[in-house]
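Chapter summary example.
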Amino acid sequence: MLSNDIRENALFNEIESLISPMGLKVVDAVKNDLPSGCQMTVTIYSDDREVNTDDLAEVYNVIYPRYQLILGQRDLNLEVSSPGLTRNFKDYYEFTLFKGKVCKVYSTTYSSWIEGVIDNVDNSSVLLGKAVIQDTEEALDELKLSFSEIQKAKLSYRWEEENNGKSN
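The structure predicted for these 168 residues follows.
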């Protein structure tokens, strides 16, 4: 099940405040304390362009020195990444981040995966455009799903839309 508490996470909010001036957003931030040190994983996203290696390096160079000071003598293992093409959602917040992107959700109401474009999101539901219920292959212009009926969700990628019918 997806959670709805990432925006209440102190680490998420602190990293968001550090990287938002760069035009980037935090998708997820996780810190695990280990006996030998600390492991942090930060996933970043940009609304208007693809995240590249320069972005990843810049975010790393902002976060690493800060948390190395906070942790003192403990070792810090920091990983900064992009969400990728098929990211599994962890929080409902991700629907707002990826508005306009294609996603797949598993609906308990339909007992099927449903793929569509995230058109709109509110506090309790998501509206998918160009939705396809995969088990029945039923295509709908729009489908509104409440968060309570979404068991899983992930980004998806429609290769044919990217190619726009062009042949190689």
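To summarize the output: The chain has four helices and eight strands.
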